[in-house]
UniProtKB/TrEMBL annotation:
SUPFAM superfamilies in UniProt: P-loop containing nucleoside triphosphate hydrolases (SSF52540)
Domain Phosphoribulokinase/uridine kinase: 3-187
Compartments in which it is found: Cytoplasm
CDD domains, A to Z: UMPK (cd02023)
Secretion signal, residue range per the UniProt entry: none
The protein's name in its UniProt record: Uridine kinase
Keyword Kinase recorded: yes
Gene Ontology molecular function terms on file: ATP binding; cytidine kinase activity; uridine kinase activity
Source taxonomy: Bacteria, Pseudomonadati, Bacteroidota, Flavobacteriia, Flavobacteriales
Organism (species): Pseudotamlana carrageenivorans
Entry's family note: Belongs to the uridine kinase family.
Amino acid sequence: MLLIGIAGGTGCGKTTVVNKILNELPDGEVGVISQDSYYKDTTHLSYDERVSINFDHPRSIDFDLLTRHLKDLKDNKVIEQPMYSFVKHNRTGDTILTHPRKVMIVEGILILTNPELRDLCDIKIYVHADSDERLIRRLKRDIAERGRDLDEVLTRYQNTLKPMHTQFIEPTKEHADIIIPNNKHNIVAVDIIKNIIAQKL
Ligand SMILES: Nc1ncnc2c1ncn2[C@@H]1O[C@H](COP(=O)(O)OP(=O)(O)O)[C@@H](O)[C@H]1O
Ligand SMILES: Nc1ccn([C@@H]2O[C@H](COP(=O)(O)O)[C@@H](O)[C@H]2O)c(=O)n1
């Protein structure tokens, strides 16, 4: 199995890049694991306590479960990937049966912060977009798709997202094999990754 890790700050376009890669490859050949599915289970907390979690700090992620699942997939085992709700700020309780594929992509803001996870990745990619561009995209997306309003996004941006990005996420660029500039849609970079995957398939 070829494991590709795709990191980069919120709104840089990780999910969009992954979808573009998937769209043009044969159905079912490439699997995706989202770091968001591995936010720690917070069922024991009240809704108000969950809202105040710092979701941009590495400790918010259940890296033990994530790395265990990636190792299982590498060992050709099926896993039950948790499902996550950005509206409830918690796992939904449902899981998606995820089968091992010749190529698996794991994507998320913090995946290159974890040394064990980095070592599991055969190719490490960092998607870069400027912070103003990312904030604009995040505002539009979170209001349209994640049940947020202007005040929620800006408050989270100032209080946790921006400082965590500077402290934990941006520095992981140095671990990347490939950095994709993504202020604009980068068709050439997506084509290069698609070709690497097509060779493996
Ligand atoms: N290169 C790009 N140019 C303009 N908008 C983009 C670009 N890449 C992604 N977007 C948009 O920005 C928003 C966030 O992108 P997304 O792929 O969800 O980012 P991430 O997964 O890194 O948080 C989405 O609404 C997406 O359509
Ligand atoms: N309940 C949550 C959990 C996470 N977030 C934010 O999601 C961002 C990571 O996801 P991307 O798709 O944008 O990479 C991260 O910046 C968290 O702040 C959230 O708002 N609510």
